[in-house]
From TrEMBL:
<feature type="domain" description="Reverse transcriptase zinc-binding">
    <location>
        <begin position="270"/>
        <end position="354"/>
    </location>
</feature>
<protein>
    <recommendedName>
        <fullName>Reverse transcriptase zinc-binding domain-containing protein</fullName>
    </recommendedName>
</protein>
<dbReference type="InterPro" id="IPR026960">
    <property type="entry name" value="RVT-Znf"/>
</dbReference>
<dbReference type="Pfam" id="PF13966">
    <property type="entry name" value="zf-RVT"/>
</dbReference>
């Protein structure tokens, strides 16, 4: 047992003899147990150092320069943001640590781009609200921590639950402990309990026997507790704290026990994801996210289209808005000012490509003024029928134009418009073939 440690808690007499007997070492708190700090204050910033170091190490290991933005985003969402998850399901993350990790993530994704603050604001929204779906750590941490409320109800025989019940007692019905009072002991549970009100507003009770659901205070027969729906009656009631079973005639003796029902998803069982989104409370906004993330284009192109939809690509007019002084002419038609809507819709080169598409598919459609409106209207044959190839067209066309525009601006290389048409058809064909989509019309 020479790899083991014996950790005395409080005054232990004869520890040296015990250690000699078992041939192990004497350890002291705090220590690391199963990767988690044991005996350290949960507020200590030091316990997060290994996590921050790990995030930093991962970032240094990935050769960011060789990854596209789409690749960076995939890595960020799949690996990086899940690194602290284990810790965050047990410890409240200090704001400074959350900021530090989010800062590392932002730098990884955006590098030195000037709009980092904006990107961060938008990036943390869910994708259907126009964001990138990168996790915001503070609400995510709360969603993970408050899962303990759900477990408290579901795991009645577990030791940790029995300890909490013995220490604080339970409120009527046994769904949760009494509020921890005083300044001493079990501060993590005290911290978790601070979120109880918000958590409780998202579940209701399925009444079985009715002996654990409070008639007036719990949500069981409508979306609100009866005391809120009928405040006058509640005021008159002599039995304000009664259970449903003692107010109503109970059902058949074989009724099941009372259950909790999570209201933020369809199956009634708690999941951190739905709670996280409720905590994040994203501002609902119309955004053509299906035409960006839901089409079969490569990830980096989807990312490019996301930037286009937000009108944040580095076109001449956007650069001028950032304070750069430059001539704003469009290098595709060499006539008009370059803006996102001009480049991808109104420019002569873009019109040529769009008219080729319409001719090939036998469609008559008036192009809208703005790229955003085009993306809204385009999906699935203007909402008529599903088509993978059709949905790829805006991404493919705008990407082809953007590449040619960059070649002309930075490489001084220019291809003729008929060659551009060929390139567009070739790229569309390649993307469709990769995904096994049939290319019927081009
Ligand atoms: Zn132009």
């Amino acid at each position: 047992m020479n790899k083991s440690e014996m950790v005395p808690i409080g005054e232990v007499t004869g520890i040296d003899d015990l250690v000699a007997l078992l041939s192990c070492h004497v350890g002291s708190l705090p220590l690391l147990y199963l990767g988690m700090p044991l005996g350290a204050s949960y507020k200590a910033l030091g316990i997060w150092n290994p996590i921050i170091e790990k995030v930093e190490r991962r970032l240094a290991g990935w050769q960011k320069l060789y990854l596209s933005k789409g690749g960076c985003l995939t890595l960020l969402k799949s690996t990086l943001s899940s690194l602290p998850t284990y810790f965050m399901s047990l410890f409240p993350i200090p704001v400074s640590v959350a900021n530090r990790i989010e800062c590392l993530q932002q730098n990884f994704l955006w590098g030195g781009l000037g709009d980092v603050h904006w990107f961060h604001l938008v990036g943390c929204s869910p994708i259907w609200c126009g964001g990138l779906g990168v996790r915001h750590l503070i609400p995510f941490n709360r969603a993970l921590l408050e899962k303990w409320f759900w477990r408290f109800r579901m795991k009645e025989s577990h030791l940790w639950r029995r300890v909490l019940v013995a220490k604080y007692g339970v409120v009527r019905g046994g769904w949760i402990t009494n509020k921890p009072r005083g300044s001493h002991g079990c501060s993590i549970w005290k911290h978790v309990m601070m979120g109880w009100e918000v958590f409780a507003s998202h579940f209701s009770h399925d009444v079985g026997m009715g002996d654990r659901v409070l008639f007036w205070h719990n949500r069981w027969c409508s979306n609100r507790p009866l005391k809120e729906t009928f405040p006058v009656l509640f005021g008159c009631s002599l039995n304000q704290d009664d259970f449903v079973a003692s107010v109503l005639v109970s059902r058949s003796p074989g009724s099941s026990s009372d259950k909790l029902r999570w209201r933020l998803n369809g199956n009634g069982t708690f999941d951190s994801r739905s709670f996280y989104h409720a905590l994040l409370a994203p501002v609902a906004m119309a955004f053509p996210w299906k035409m960006i993330w839901g089409v079969k284009s490569p990830r980096r192109i989807a990312f490019f289209m996301w930037i286009v939809a937000w009108d944040r690509i580095l076109s001449c007019d956007n650069l001028r808005k950032k304070g750069f002084v430059l001539a704003g002419w469009c290098c595709m038609c060499k006539a008009d000012d370059e803006s996102v809507d001009h480049l991808f819709i109104h420019c002569g080169a873009a019109r040529l490509l769009w008219s080729l598409v319409f001719r090939s598919f036998g469609v008559v459609w008036v192009l809208p003024n703005r790229v955003l409106d085009l993306l809204f209207g385009w999906q699935n044959w203007f909402g008529k029928r599903s088509s993978g190839v059709w949905n790829l067209i805006p991404s493919c066309l705008m990407w082809t134009i953007w590449r040619e525009r960059n070649n002309r601006s930075f490489e001084n290389k220019e291809i003729a418009l008929d060659k551009l048409l060929e390139t567009f058809c070739g790229v569309l064909f390649d993307w469709s073939r990769v995904w096994g989509l049939l290319l019927l019309h081009l």
